[in-house]
Amino acid sequence: MSARWSADSVLSLAPDDSSRRAAATLARPVPWNGTGTAGDLVWGLCAGSGKNPYQVIVDLTGPAYKCSCPSRKFPCKHALGLLLLWSDGAVPDQADSPGYASAWLESRQERAERTTTPPSRTDAAASATAADSQGAAGQKAESAARRAAERAQRVTDGLADLREWLRDQVRAGLAGSGTPGGRAGAANLMATRMVDAQAPGVAGALRALAGTAGDGPGRLLAEYALLHLLIRAHERLDELPEGLAATVRSRVGYPVRTEEVLARPAVADRWLVLATRELTDAAVPGRRIWLRGRATNRWAMLLTFADPNGTWQDPATARLRPGTEIPADLHYYPGQPALRAVIGARHGDPVRAGQALPADDGAALLAQWAAALEQDPWATTWPVVVTGTPVPSGGGQRWQLADGTGLAFPLTDRDSLWTLLAVSGGRPVTVAGEWHPNGLVALTTWHGEQAVTL
């Protein structure tokens, strides 16, 4: 049986501050029924807005989570609330788990066994395989090359259709497509065509056009121009410098296997974990983690996604939390500027890091963003560590982060800024987050040497 965790350990698993607050309201017996724990399994039924209670299960060894609620956050507030109850000793020990919990645990174990147990082979079969390995390897390489060529042709054909669609939008005028309904409907139809053409990156850019509603035709025309630039770049893919060609392929949506990335040169450092961002809008929930090397001062972005069975594809990466650092080798994906990476060899466990690296001012932030756009014109996100004071604007309805030179950046995309305001107390604070064309998303701040997730 696992030792009870502290409440702080449970809350550190929360994807954001609103999840922590919601979990605290569920950490009481009233909404729960049929709770129990046996071995490394914790379960319970939580009353929700529907007729049937949510079935909530946690496997402490992952940890891994399963909840029947519709939330796309991972773990959801119900799983966190159940863990808070369990950590407080309010979940009774049971001899057996209920059917829904046992079935989920068994399915997880079966998948793990299929992944780790290789099929048995007779000596004769092994000898035959060894004899035919060279021919099979050649056939596999030829097949892979053929599939790659077929995909490239499908992408090329799809982008040609997109080019004609963009021309039609401009010829017809932006008035109709500038309305939210007209824009979303036409763009979503073309996004479906891009999925068929195996260009998921372009499909995502088209679906994002609906989010530009209210920004006027200038913003829409700028997005159309970037798509047209991507099409032209793809047409000249073989003529582009290696780094830019890799960026174009990434923006279109060509896949890169992890094995290929791990074969690239390693960058060893003590990597500070500065911020995390939950990705709940995509088809598969994910988590974006921002690191910065102490010695190299290089940024790195890690991505991990949730499996349908309630676990992270890379649990060790998903458990990284702001305010820690890890000695490790990172391998960067091809592209410019080099940003997305995967962890290779780990040279120790994550430890508390204390204060972040020295922060930039607003001018340095804008210079870094300009340099990033020079290398990747389609970039929409850039990591930042900046010092400033939260100040109100727009009659107190909006907030900005003002640095010591007078530059101020709008704070966007947060449910609440009360945590940041409380830590600041009207004084300058260091903030780590993401810079987007419409402003700064604050993800982490520091109270002394304590990282505070926003």
UniProtKB/TrEMBL annotation:
Alphabetized InterPro entries for the sequence: Znf_SWIM
Domain SWIM-type: 54-87
Pfam families hit by this protein: SWIM (PF04434)
Keyword Iron tagged: no
Alphabetical keyword list: Metal-binding, Zinc, Zinc-finger
GO molecular function (one): zinc ion binding
Bias (Low complexity) ranges: 115-142
Compositional bias annotation for Basic and acidic residues: 143-152
Disordered: region residues: 107-152
Name this protein carries in UniProt: SWIM zinc finger family protein
Lineage: Bacteria, Bacillati, Actinomycetota, Actinomycetes, Streptosporangiales
